Amino acid sequence: MPKKDWIGDRISEELQKLLSLISEKCNSLGYKAYIVGGAVRDMLLGVELSDIDITVVGDAQRLAGAFNDCHGCVVKTYPSFKTVTLDTGGLGIIDIVTARREIYNYPAALPEVYPSSLYDDLYRRDFSINAMAVSLKNPQLIDYFDGYGDLCNRLIKVLHCNSFVDDPTRILRAIRLEKRYNFRMDIKTERLMMACIKEEYPRRLSNERILAELELILTEPQRTSMLSRMQEVGLWQMLFGGSSVPSSTCRKLDRILNGGRNVLLFSVLALLEDIKEEKLLEVFSRYKTFYKKLERFRDRERSLGLEMKDKPLGRGLLYKMFAETDPEILKYLCAIAPTEHYKKNVRTYMQEIKDFMFYIDGNTLESFGVAPGPQYRVLLEGAKTQIVEDKITDIDGQLKLLKEMVQKGEYNVWELT
Ligand code: CTP
Fold this sequence. Notes:
Low-confidence stretches: 413-417
Radius of gyration: 28 Å
CATH architecture of the domain at 1-153: 2-Layer Sandwich
Shape: elongated
Largest sheet: 7 strands, mixed
Mean pLDDT: 91
CATH class of the domain at 1-153: Alpha Beta
Number of strands: 11
CATH superfamily of the domain at 1-153: Beta Polymerase, domain 2
Strand content: 5-15%
Number of helices: 22
Helix content: 40-55%
Structural class: alpha+beta
Oligomer: single chain
Bound molecules: cytidine-5'-triphosphate
């Protein structure tokens, strides 16, 4: 059960000092400042804080001017959004926003914003648990919509009937919060969400906005249950067509999470590999370069037809399989490896073969009198495969092997026996 008397012990001393400073600056300008949104929710829940959002009843831009001397913070202002970002380095990001009300001119539009009161600023928000505030001056909970009660009852509740229609990304947020904290939507909120999906409002979201929410989902530990929930309510199908997320992909996602490296990139690659929906690739177009590299590797893997899953491959075969594969793709293959043998094969390549020194190239062939053409590639790849297999590390040995191949006219030496 969350506690109300939390403020002091949830914020480090250093951060408290910085918040006091912000509070003082606000006082001197006659403004009021409040911690709002997810930070209040997370402090009440006693979970670790990420970034802090502060709402100022006053002009956040003007406040920014007072921060030039602010303890090494990097201050960025965004005049059109009436926001200021303080990058504190070690203490995370503090976003300072002018209190506002928002007007959505049509479903899924980006809202028009107008400076307003704290109440309006909280009312414009997605869920009651995200619509609480704490004054910086007098650290007490301000809770107009009983967010605290919903937090205690583990409920996600919208503040008004149009919340999902105004901003359908909130459906993704609701699912994310539900699964992250093991909460559920209350009946009315669930009904509003289903109505919004039925009316197909989420289709109106731009790819950028869908991407931003999906990226957040894919970095959460509970992401596979979030994806299942999206499918359960029909949102996945609406956004990405008929293909669901196969259970084998969910297993891959679990492995990637346990590996703990590059979780986002690898998860996107796993989804793109397994789900052939044009719209998914469109949404994840930022990852296209990596995905193309992965596809190239898969083509090679298929054409070689080597069984990497069941046994360790020899060094030459590993070279044939992985040469020129992007290091990030190699790490991905390791992260999703279906068997220990597969993983070991990738690792052996990465650790023992990837950086193997070759002393032969096209110039060498030219010096041997071989006419330039497609045979260069065949000869060099063949020779390199053999060189790696036989661990020929010296220049003379490598030159000798290549020369022998040329002399024998072995221009088709890809096959290792
Ligand atoms: N918010 C909203 N509607 C959205 C996105 C955000 O009302 N579509 C509000 C919520 O009050 C939210 C706050 O803006 O708490 C800050 O948003 P953000 O930083 O994206 O999320 P957090 O709630 O802080 O959650 P997280 O822990 O995922 O960062």
